What does this fold into?
Amino acid sequence: MKNIYATIITIGDELLIGQVIDTNSSWMAQQLNQIGIAVKKRVSIGDNAEDMRRALDIESKEADVILITGGLGPTADDITKEVLCEYFEGKMVLNEGALENVKYLFETIYKKPVSKVNLAQAEVPDVCEVIQNKRGSAPGMIFKRGGKIFISMPGVPYEMQGILNEVLPYLKEQFSLPAIIHKTILTAGIGESALAEMIAGFEKNLPEKIKLAYLPNYGMVRLRLTTSGFDRIATQKVIDGQFNELKELVKKYTVTNEDETMQVVLGKLLLNKNKTISTAESCTGGAIASLITSVPGSSSYFEGSIISYSYAVKENLLGVKNETLNKFGAVSEETVLEMLNGLLNKLNTDYGIAVSGIMGPDGGTPDRPVGTVWIAVGSKEKMIAQKIQQRFSRHKNIEVTSTMALNLMRKFILEQ
Amino acid sequence: MKNIYATIITIGDELLIGQVIDTNSSWMAQQLNQIGIAVKKRVSIGDNAEDMRRALDIESKEADVILITGGLGPTADDITKEVLCEYFEGKMVLNEGALENVKYLFETIYKKPVSKVNLAQAEVPDVCEVIQNKRGSAPGMIFKRGGKIFISMPGVPYEMQGILNEVLPYLKEQFSLPAIIHKTILTAGIGESALAEMIAGFEKNLPEKIKLAYLPNYGMVRLRLTTSGFDRIATQKVIDGQFNELKELVKKYTVTNEDETMQVVLGKLLLNKNKTISTAESCTGGAIASLITSVPGSSSYFEGSIISYSYAVKENLLGVKNETLNKFGAVSEETVLEMLNGLLNKLNTDYGIAVSGIMGPDGGTPDRPVGTVWIAVGSKEKMIAQKIQQRFSRHKNIEVTSTMALNLMRKFILEQ
It folds into this structure.
C-alpha cells in the first residue's frame, strides 16, 4: 500500500495579481486530507494555455490526483476547458445532462433567458467523465492518463464544493487510502516560542512518524499533531497517547482540544450553562458580534449588541456618563465598565462583553497610542476590565482584539 | 527591455492541510504588480527539504525573482533557513544587526527574557544579504544565483509586509521594469454572463495587448482591463481609451471605476454629503457594521448599530411592535421597516440600514426558506424595503447580504 498524493492547481489571472484571496485550496485540502489523500503541493497560474500545459506536465509527475479549479466560466478569458480538451486529445461534444442542467438553472432558478454562451457551457471534451454541477452552469470533468486522475472544477467556491463532494467518494473507490489523523489544541495567551520551550522535551521525544506544527493565528497558537497509517486503529492509538501527554503540558493555556474556533467553544459553553450573551462594541465595530453569530444556532444564546462608535450612542444607548467620557476618555477602564453595565441593563443578558480602543492607522495620542484597547467582561454581579496593546494593522488589530475579548469572556464564565 | 517575472513560493504544512488560508500571496502579488513585476505562478509546499529544493530548481528556471515565505519560525518544524543555507552552499553565521533586533524586541517590546531558540533566529547563511525584520525576530534574506534573485521572508503577514516594503525599492534598482496598468470597474446587480453579453462587441474588438477579466465576488462582478508597456504614457493612453468605452457600456450597474470596495465607496459618498449612518442588524449579526468600520476614518460618518438577534431586543431597543412580529414574523417587510424607523429615532443618523433574514443552515419555513432576507434602507423622510433570496452557505449568505444592503443604501443616497 502506498500513500496517495494530490496537487491542487488553481487557474485565474486574478490569483496572480492579488485581486482575490484563494480560499478554495484550503477547503479542498481539508476534504482530501479527511479521506486520506495528502496534498503535496498547490500551484496557481494564470489563464494562459502554455502555463497550464506546463503545470499539468510537472504536477502529473509528482502527484496521483491533480485537482484543477477555475477558468470554466462563460466568458472569453476562461480557456481551461479548451486547453484540457486539447491536452487530453479529445473533441468538444454536447453533454445532454449538462444541457438540461443549464436550461433548468436559467429557466427555473434564475428566471432569465438562456444565452448562447451559457449553452456552450454544456459542451465538454469527449474524453472526460462529466460530474454535473447542481449549483451552476459549468460541469465538472474527470480525465485519466497514465494512472493519474485529473479533475477540473469551476472556481466559484460554492460550485466547486458541490462538485468536490461528489468527487470524494469517487476518489475513495479508486485508491486504497491510509488514515491521516490530525489532533489539534487551540491555545491562547502564550506566544509561539514560549510554547515551544514549554514543550521542548515532548517534541524531542516525539516518534518520527508524528509531526508537530505550531500554527499562530488571530493572536492564538494552534498546536497540531499529524500522523498517517493504513491500520487506522493502531495509528489512532499512537497519536492519542502523544496527544494526551501534550494536552497535560499546555492545559493552562488550552481553549479547546478539538479543531474548532474560539467562537464555537464559547457558544458551546453558553449552551451548556443555558446562559445568554450580548456585546457593546466601539473599536471592533461589530466584529465580535459577527464572530459570535457566524456560528449556526447562535440565536439560542446571543441576544444582540449595541455598537457605539460615537460618544452620543455611548451616552444615549449604553448610559455612559458624559462626565466619564470627558474625564477619562472613550478608551478607559471607567468607560468600558460603564458600557458593560449599560449593556447588561439594556439587553438583560447573563453575560456581556464591552470593548473600546484605537485601531488605527490614526487616532492615537502620546498616552493612548494606536492599538490601546480596554476590554470588560462580566455579569451584573461581577465585572472585570483589562487593558491590552495591539501592534498590527487596523484589520488585524480588530481581529485579534475580538478573539481576545471572546477568550476573556470564556475564562470569566469558567471561573463562575 | 524584457518583462520581469516572479514566482511566489509559500512554505508550511498548514497550507497543504487547509488549516489556514494563504493571504500573503495576494498581498505580495499586488505589491509586485505595482512596480511592474508580473507574478507568473504561485506555489505552496510543505516544510519538507526535498520539496523545497525541487521547487527552487523548477521555479528559478521560469522566473527572475523568487519570493519565498514561511518556515523561518523558532520552532523545530521550521527548516527553510537551513535548506536555503545548504542550497546556496553557505554556512550559518551570527548577524549582529539581527541579534540586536531580537534582543531589543524581547527586552523592550515583549518584556520577556530572550530564549536560546530566539537567539538562534539571529543566525543567517553567510551567502545572503540580510534585511532586518523590525516587526519580529526572523530576518529577511536575499540570495542571488545565475542572475535570479531569491528572497526569503517570514510567513507572519505583518512581518512579511514590513520586509517586502524594503525589498520593493531594492527590486526596482535591480531591473528595468515596465508599467503594468490595471483599470477596474466594480459592478453590482448583474451576473457575470449577462455582463459578458452586454459587452461582447467591446470584448471582441479589444486590442490583443489588453486583457479583460470578469471577477465575481460577494455577489458583485469586477471587470478588469490589464496591459503593460515600457512607455508608461503611451500604455496609459491606450488603456484609458478602452476603459472609457467600457465605463459607458456598463454604467447602469457601476458602483465605482476605481479599485476600491463597496464600503469605501459608500464611506466617501457619506463624507462628501456630510451625512451619518447607522445599522439595525438581525441575521447579519454585525457584519454590515464590521464592513463599514473596516474603513479607516469611518468614525466620521458611522454612529453605531443595534444588533437585534432576539425579539426582545427588536422590541425594546428598536421599538418594533410585538404585534408586528407576531402577525408578520421577524423576517418581513413590516418588521424591517419598523426596525429602520426605530433605529433612525434612537441613533438620530441621516441614513440607516435594517436587515432581517434566515441565513441557515436551519431555521427556514415553507413560505420563508433559508436565504430569505428583507432589507430596508432610508432616512426619516423616506424608506424603501426589498426582499432578496440567497442561495449559499451561512457564511456566504451573510457576506452577500451585507454587500447588497450597502449597495441599496448607496443607490438610495444617490437618488436623494
Summary: Residues 394-415 of chain B form the longest helix (22 residues).
